[in-house]
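Supplementary Methods S3. Input chains for the assembly prediction are listed below.
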Amino acid sequence: MKTVFKKPESLTDAQFHYCPGCTHGIIHRLIAECVDEMNIRESTIGICPVGCSVLAYDYFNFDMLEAAHGRAPAIAAAIKRLLPDRTLFTYQGDGDLASIGMGEILHASVRGEKICVFFINNTVYGMTGGQMAPTTLLGQVTTTSPYGRSKDNEGYPAKMAEILAQNEGSAYICRTAVNDPPNVMKTKKAIKKALQTQAKGLGFSMVEILSTCPTNWGLNPLDSMKWLEDNMIPYYPLGELKVKEDR
Amino acid sequence: MEKVLMKGNEALAEGALIAGCRGFFGYPITPSSEIAEYMARKLPGLGGVFVQAESELAAINMVYGGSSTGTRVMTASSGPGISLKQEGISFIAEAELPCLIVNVSRGGPGLGGIQPSQADYFQATRGGGHGDYRVIVLAPSGTQEMMDYTIEAFDLADRYRTPVMIMAEGTLGNIMEPIIVRDPVEKFYDKPWAITGCKGRKPNIVNTLHLASDFLEERNRILQAKYKLIEQNEKRAETFLTDDADVIVVAFGLMARIVKKAVMEARKNGVKAGLIRPITLWPFPDEHFKKVAETARMVLSVEISMGQMVEDIRLSVNGRVPVEFYGRIGFTPNPEEITQQLLLLAEREGF
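Predicted structure tokens for the full assembly:
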């Protein structure tokens, strides 16, 4: 009998704890599929963040390290330098990467650390209950921007892909979304390209993935996808921002 | 064996290389920077990794990552930088990863000054960061010990899977003394927990999150059992003329060498003084105080701080003998002023 569909070997049998409609599960699977397809599971090391995906070490079936809030890129960089033939990635949310970890992410890119960063942007702090993130959109109501984010008070949302694309050390920077099947497939392609960028030793790579948080947005999963399309994609345009082809 | 003239910070850095340290992650700060500079020069040629991190936070997290690969790694800094590293040290302690953290300490609080200081004693010996943890703290008193204790620190770190700190007042980092350069003696420690890629084995996880109450408590009990073992095995101190002493001076680091001179001066003046020099600041060598608590009439703690180790001395003698304190900050007490203190105490107490 021919197997046409199976769970990636790079995922464990543990059940995801994520809320219904959350897109972490999709992205975990995409990363696992790419690692399987590139046959690098036994040399891959993942760093999980602090946030909803803090427990990602239970789901990925390879060596994992759980970082302090925002520090994953520093940890990944050190491991990559000491073990240069391993594949290193960090998995980080918007609070972790764009707020408390702004220093670490920026300098990992500046130094051109040969690591992959999978940045899950859903515009809110999920685990702590829906507080404002650096990526919260103008006008968006969160528990700590109860009157809606304003440019005068909270300032403008951070465009991390654009910021990091400017650095010479960045070899591949792309923004995707997981709101519909075509975009899910594009996200998988970007994840693979990021991993290949690392394999070629070209430099730092990041895929910013626009995601949903139905629980903290107060929307059902379907309306969340629509909210992402109507509000996030216009401000955070999709596509490749930086592609370095050779060293 | 031929001696080589070396600066304390460089002797420490060379000691780390002798111990097999192959990863240094740091951020410049006076008076520790020569350690980073030395490692930047030497590590690449040894196949090691040197990274000047963007901050102390990044540096200690690079140590966290580096140590998780099973490589011997370290960082070095001074007071304000060590404060920033505390979050990471707490993570490393709970993840049970071996590493060396060096504090070539300066005066605080705040930005303070670059004068030598021992005022980070509480920070070093009480854990410093959040949660119930300890780090082994070694206090060298000269350039030779800057090298020797560093070599030993890596061994202790691997043996107990714990961060080890070397605390040296800034002077120790910057004075030069002739020393014997040791031979490499790296013992092999099996590190089946290391994060190296799961080829041929089940995946390893380095993690400090324990959401279940019983597991969180269990993790703490495991750590405490380890700390108890360290307390049993590793308390160290040097004693000098304590047997017949009426007054015991307690000092660590370079301060202890200065005190030694004062102890001899006091004896010339008819005051029977002695010295206890704690070598491990944690675990504190309280055993060494048991006997003197019965025989001495007075204990004097001399520190380059406003009085921190004196609390551990009081806990150690537990009220059996009075404990006095003499300390300065911004200045290192000199032998004459300590001798003066001893003579004054003797006159006041009538011994």
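The mean pLDDT of chain B is 97. DSSP finds twelve helices and 16 strands in chain B.
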